[in-house]
Design a protein that fits this description.
Structural class of chain A: alpha+beta
Number of strands of chain B: 17
Distance between the termini of chain B: 27 Å
Strand content of chain A: 25-35%
Largest sheet of chain B: 9 strands, mixed
Strand order of the largest sheet of chain B: 10-11-9-8-7-6-5-2-12
Strand content of chain B: 15-25%
Oligomer: heterodimer
Radius of gyration of chain A: 27 Å
Number of strands of chain A: 34
Distance between the termini of chain A: 51 Å
Shape of chain A: globular
Chain lengths: ~600, ~425
């Protein structure tokens, strides 16, 4: 069928920047609701297109962008493309990726709470990318809302005009229609030449078991059509477009996407490296266009080893990681061989949350049973000969004397908190070897800048920060430099055997306390077994701490007669199942938690 | 051990299935009612509300036995065990009728052992005399403890002195082979209290003692509301000293929880642990029967046996369980509808099923016995045995493979190696 002509001036592409709980999802739902009514009356022809995907069973297409038709007060129907952004410090790179597909952004701030560090950072990213930012104060229906104070705070901290910020309640719907009007009025339409050769940005790609690779794209110049031969610039490979569409939020199949539009694409790309995020698509026949500016290049900062509990799962594990990497360009991995845990991968993450999400996805979606080691940062080692090496695995740190210098990554932390908690937060930062760089008061909010070793943040900083500030402090960080520090490798021995996967690199002054804590925590998480289990912490050859898990006296069923076979089998099956989450190191069964004991993070799952 | 009878390798009709006659056969009869259910008990027992219809239940048992015997059973019974629940809730007349009807349908071996479980709270002199007269030659009394406070906590219907009286009543009725069930590591039990129970039991001079640790079983009241039990170390100390006391008085341990004077080991229970066959009749009862001819002989069968291939294909071991609820059982006994589950044990499961029984015995088992009773070569145990040897859980004594003392304390770890 003939596609409606798309008028570029009637397109608005935008994201919502908001802290968790500040009302992003509620507001998005309101938008869909407001625009959905119109769709039902006036846009039926488009919605009810014969949809080949829907006839197929069991497919999922992630709705990361929703395309809405909005009839504005000027009587025109606008295409509003709302592109989702994640809200956590680990995923700032994804924010920049989503923002690259937009001309504008809504900064949504909870009028009862005020600005928060992550929103500040994301808002800066939007401004750097020359996006028009509209400020929206949400939750003004709450009794403790202070829109005037929060508006002032936004001006102070972010430096954008906020006196005329929209004041709304996404929950009650108050002021929401005005937001849509402002989006139409104040955000610019996409630029771009509809007659130029195709240039489209891959905003995101994911692997669908049925369709293969599905990509979310933004058409920057030209148009993309069903049946067209397209080329992925970085790989030079050509594909034929099989499906194009948008989410309204229902899937709507289209024959083409025009300049400025955002939608999804399926082009028979089976290989998971076929559509790298950040890459550019063009026409196979007119392929002389340039790569669009790539996204901010991100480096993984936190590394951990992951090992399949069952060695036979190694190949499945490799495949799963490859699939995950398709829509997670920050994920890096290379094979690792541990004497304690066997074959696995050393995986690079953006941060702790990223690590948890990856592990959870691998276990839930790919049904893998994994042991994860304590995360480590990357250290820079200067060997005696002057050669510089980077190590991301503590067990790779040479023995003392074999290197001239070891340097750790230092980050700049930007923290925001109410005045009441400044003392507690500063004390925490000092405990974490932080060096205060800047302190600014903005009304009741305080902005603190601290240089801190990344290793300390990886440890338990986030949880501690939330705890000392009752959840009111927020932070974001960026990498600064590598810096010399008196670091030592802390080894753990279980029944006399060094367990490489339990080694950590710690500050010399903290080594004794850390060793003692580690031995205590290991004693708690290692179950009593048939034998005594001796746990020791050591620096080089020197044992600095020890603990013992006492042997279980007995493990035997008191009664067993003729009818007890199946009951007993179930019981032992269950025990055996529990042991699947453990790793046999020598004769000792070590549970998953033990490998994270160094973090003090409770990860029962 | 006698040679295996494998007469009918090509039999395909289940009616003409041949049992492997080399294995001994026992009969278990279940009586599912109790005066009230104890909070620790996970056996199939139900509170008897009002009168039990003895006649109806005995009729059901007989119909059920006839159904089980539709496959010819040339073997004579080495033992009968009437367990529960509380079989002593049934009158002497009813028990006599049960045994009479059983004997009309299946032969008794000359020295047959016939046990009945009795609750001290339901001990009745006339009933006991009638049980004895009916052919019951062994009585098992569920004493659990002689301490009144403990008995109340355990939800028992009797007091300590009643247990002693029940024992005397049994002796007076002519029982010269009596077992007492005794539990240890009871809620808040001290080592002194526990030993007092053992001393009191020894003072009565029973032929047999089942001395076992109270454990919290799933789906019991205690599991839902756990009482404060002695910890691992305290329970271990109680067990060690209790065992020493028993040994001192001539009660030799022959199984994890079983102790007997010379010549008085329980033949019926030994048959379970030696992986013999048994017919299980009554609500929730389990049968195990071994057929010559193996799985291939039953290729027509309704069941699917998976892909496991049997090492020599000469035996098929079938487990069968009756419906547990008495009402359901009463309605269906005598027909296939009474069977809740029937399955053929796969070759992969046999090493575990055999060892979980045989390694409970202090003496262990002879490798040849494993081959004869499972139809598998001893090599099928190799992986598990290697693990057990590495950890010092198993030892060889004369020709027998047996759990070491350490292995008996960690039997679950030992058995996991055979799963």
């Amino acid at each position: 069928m003939k596609q409606t002509d798309v008028n570029q001036s009637l397109i608005r592409n935008f994201s919502i920047i908001a802290h968790i709980d500040h009302g992003k999802s509620t507001l998005a739902d309101r938008f869909i609701q407001l625009c959905g009514g119109l769709e039902a009356r006036e846009m039926q022809a488009q919605v009810l297109d014969n949809n080949p995907i829907e006839r197929e069973r069991g497919i999922t297409i992630k709705a990361q962008a929703v395309s809405l038709n909005y009839k504005a007060h000027d009587g025109k129907i606008y295409q509003l493309n709302l592109i989702d952004t994640p809200g956590h410090v680990d995923f700032s790179y994804e924010v920049s990726r989503s923002l690259a597909a937009c001309e504008g952004a809504l900064l949504v701030v909870d009028a009862s709470q005020g600005v928060e560090a992550q929103s500040v950072a994301n808002c800066y990213t939007a401004l750097e990318q020359k996006l028009e930012v509209l400020t929206v104060l949400n939750k003004i229906d709450l009794q403790n809302a202070e829109p005037d104070r929060v508006a002032q705070e936004i001006e102070d901290i972010i430096g954008i005009e906020a006196t005329d910020a929209l004041r709304i309640s996404a929950k009650t719907g108050l002021g929401v229609p005005e937001v849509l009007e402002e989006v139409v009025r104040r955000l610019p339409p996409p630029k771009g030449d509809p007659d130029a050769p195709l240039q489209a940005l891959i905003v995101d790609s994911w692997f669908d078991n049925y369709l293969g690779v599905v990509s979310l794209i933004r058409v920057v110049n030209g148009r993309i059509q069903k049946g067209q031969k397209i080329r992925v610039i970085s790989t030079g490979k050509d594909y034929e477009v099989t499906i194009l569409g948008v989410h309204s939020p229902k899937r709507v199949i289209k024959n083409s996407l025009e300049t400025g539009e955002v939608g999804f694409l399926v082009a028979g790309i089976k290989d998971i490296y076929g559509a790298p995020v950040g890459d550019t698509l063009t026409e196979a026949s007119r392929a002389s266009v340039d790569q669009l500016p790539g996204f901010r290049k991100v480096q993984p900062r936190v590394f951990a080893g992951m090992f399949p509990v069952d060695a036979d799962d190694f190949e499945d594990f490799r495949e799963s990681l490859q699939k995950l990497r398709l829509n997670d360009s920050a994920l890096q991995f290379e094979p690792e061989n541990s004497t304690a845990l066997g074959f696995g991968f050393r995986i690079g993450f953006l941060g702790m949350l990223h690590m948890e999400i990856v592990q959870e996805r691998l276990e839930r979606e790919y049904n893998l049973n994994l042991i994860t080691t304590a995360p480590s940062v990357v250290y820079e080692i200067e060997l005696n000969g002057g050669e510089i090496r980077k190590i991301d695995n503590p067990s790779d740190l040479p023995e003392p004397g074999a290197y001239a210098d070891v340097r750790e990554p230092i980050i700049l932390c930007r923290l925001l908190m109410p005045q009441t908690y400044v003392g507690a937060v500063m004390q925490l930062c000092m405990e974490k070897r932080g060096v205060q760089k800047n302190l600014r008061y903005h009304g009741n909010q305080v902005q603190l800048e601290v240089e801190m070793p990344l290793a300390e943040v990886v440890l338990d900083f986030f949880d501690r920060l939330k705890s000392v500030s009752r959840g009111f402090a927020s932070f974001e960080y960026e990498f600064l430099r590598f810096q010399t520090a008196p670091l030592v490798k802390l080894d753990v021995l279980v029944n006399g055997d060094k367990v490489d996967a339990l080694a950590t690199i710690v500050h010399r002054d903290a080594a004794y306390n850390r060793g003692r804590d580690l031995c205590e925590r290991m004693q708690e998480v290692i179950h009593r077994q048939m034998f005594d289990v001796a746990i020791q912490a050591a620096i080089g050859a020197k044992i600095i701490s020890r603990s013992t898990v006492k042997a279980l006296r007995k493990d035997v069923t008191a009664k067993c007669y003729g009818g007890d076979v199946s009951r007993k089998r179930k019981l032992l099956d269950k025990q055996k199942e529990g042991k699947k989450r453990m790793k046999q190191v020598g004769a000792v069964e070590i549970p998953q938690e033990a490998f994270l004991a160094v973090l003090g993070v409770d990860r029962r799952n | 051990m006698a040679e295996l009878a494998t007469t009918s390798l090509n039999a395909v009709d289940s009616a003409s299935r041949q049992v492997a006659t080399a294995l001994p056969l026992a009969l278990y009869l279940h009586f599912p009612w109790c005066v009230r259910k104890c909070p620790y008990c996970d056996f199939n027992s139900h509170s008897a509300r009002g009168e039990i219809d003895e006649t109806a239940y005995v009729d059901a048992l007989i119909r059920d036995l006839e159904f089980e015997l539709r496959e010819p059973e040339p073997r004579a019974l080495g033992s009968i065990f009437m367990g529960g629940g509380t079989p002593s809730l049934f009158s002497g007349v009813a028990i006599a009728r049960v045994l009479r009807e059983v004997q009309r349908r299946i032969a008794f071996a000359p020295e047959i052992e016939i046990t009945l479980e009795a609750n001290p709270g339901t001990a009745d002199a006339q009933n006991f005399r009638e049980y004895r007269a009916a052919g019951v030659n062994r009585l098992s009394i569920g004493v659990q403890s002689f301490d009144d406070a403990q008995l109340r906590r355990l939800g028992r219907i009797h007091a300590g002195d009643e247990a002693i009286r029940a024992f005397e009543t049994a002796r007076n009725a002519g029982f010269d082979n009596i077992n007492l069930d005794l539990m240890f590591a009871l809620p808040q039990q001290t080592i002194e209290q526990a030993l007092r129970d053992v001393q009191q039991a020894i003072a009565l001079a029973p032929e047999h003692l089942s001395y076992y640790q109270l454990t919290l079983e799933p789906n019991t009241e205690f599991a839902a509301h756990p009482p404060p039990l002695p910890d691992d170390d305290a329970a271990w100390a109680i067990q060690q000293q209790g065992q020493a006391l028993l040994a001192e008085h001539g009660y030799a341990q022959y199984e994890i929880s079983a102790y007997a004077r010379a010549g008085h080991e329980c033949r019926h229970n030994r048959n379970y642990w030696e992986f013999g066959d048994y017919l299980g009749i009554g609500a929730g009862a389990h049968s195990k029967r071994t057929y010559a001819g193996g799985i291939d002989a039953r290729a027509h069968g309704k069941r699917s046996f998976g892909n496991e291939s049997r090492a020599n294909g000469t035996l098929e071991i079938v487990r069968r369980a009756r419906h547990k609820h008495p009402r359901n059982y009463l309605q269906t006994a005598g027909s296939v509808a009474a069977i809740q589950e029937e399955r053929s044990v796969s070759a992969a499961e046999l090493p575990f099923e055999f060892t979980m029984n045989a390694l409970r015995l202090n003496e262990g088992f002879q490798p040849a016995a494993f081959e004869i009773r499972t139809g598998l070569p001893i090599a099928a145990l190799e992986a598990g045995l290697n693990l057990a040897r590495r950890d010092g859980l198993i030892e060889t004594n004369a020709q027998n493979l047996r759990a070491s003392e350490f292995g008996r304390a960690h039997l679950n770890a030992l058995l996991r190696g055979f799963m």
